[in-house]
Amino acid sequence: MTENKVQFNIQRIYIKDVSFESPMAPQVFTEMATAPKIGFNFESNIIKINDETHELSLNFTVKAELESEILYLLELKQCGVFSLTADDEELKKRFLNVHCAEIVYPYARENISNIIQKGGFPPLFISPVDFHTIYQNELDKRKDN
After folding, report:
1. How is the chain split into domains, by residue range?
2. How far apart are CA 86 and CA 9, in angstroms?
3. Fewer CB within 10 A of the terminal residue: the chain, N end or C end?
4. Structure pTM?
5. CB within 8 A of 6, min separation 6: which ones?
6. Backbone angles phi, psi at 15, to 5 degrees
7. DSSP character for 99?
8. Which helix (H) or strand (E) holds 32?
9. What would the pLDDT profile of 20-74 be if each residue is shown by its tens digit?
10. 6-144 carries CATH number 3.40.50.720
């Protein structure tokens, strides 16, 4: 039985792009009587920089709405650059999609909450994400097609 080896290093974790809009401020702070509807979306993207270096970006969109009015819109691209070598290409893909995302995600959660709070709104506490299950579901979808 062969042992799969992975050599891994975090080079950098950073915000690549961020945008926050609150088109109804300051009126929203005095006129809001009910809790807004919060929409949350994210996707991941991996860019190969060279054979051993990859950038993982987690792209988030958070929108708070009250009826048809947008209270705030936050877009964040939280990234990490990782050095990774692995004996097996599938193992390398899984490591990038699962483990690297698990490293970057907490930074995004904190930044999203802080930015919303600095915009004058209560912080948004985002639940953890099971990146392993998401990745496995994507693999299963590709097998079915």
Report:
1. 6-144
2. 12
3. N
4. 0.89
5. 84, 85, 86, 87, 91, 92, 95
6. -90, 125
7. I
8. none
9. 999 999 999 888 778 899 999 999 999 999 999 999 999 999 999 998 899 999 9
10. no
To the nearest 10°, report the CA torsion of 128, 80, 116, 132.
-20
Q: How many CB atoms are located within 10 Å of the residue 105 CB?
A: 20
Which amino acid appears at position 58 of this protein?
L
**Residue 114 burial (CB count, 10 A):** 12
**Cα–Cα distance, 94 to 69 (Å, whole number):** 40
Task: Count CB atoms within 10 A of the CB of residue 2.
Answer: 6
| DSSP alpha helix (H) spans, 47-130 | 89-94, 101-118
Place of tokens 């807004």: 36
Residues 51, 28 contacting (CB under 8 angstroms)? no
> What's the half-sphere exposure (Cβ side, CA atoms, 13 Å) at 94?
13
What is the spatial order of strands in the sheet that 69-86 belongs to?
6-21, 69-86, 53-66, 37-48
pLDDT of the residue at 32: 78
- Kindly give the residue spans of alpha helices, DSSP state H, lying in 8-100: 27-31, 89-94
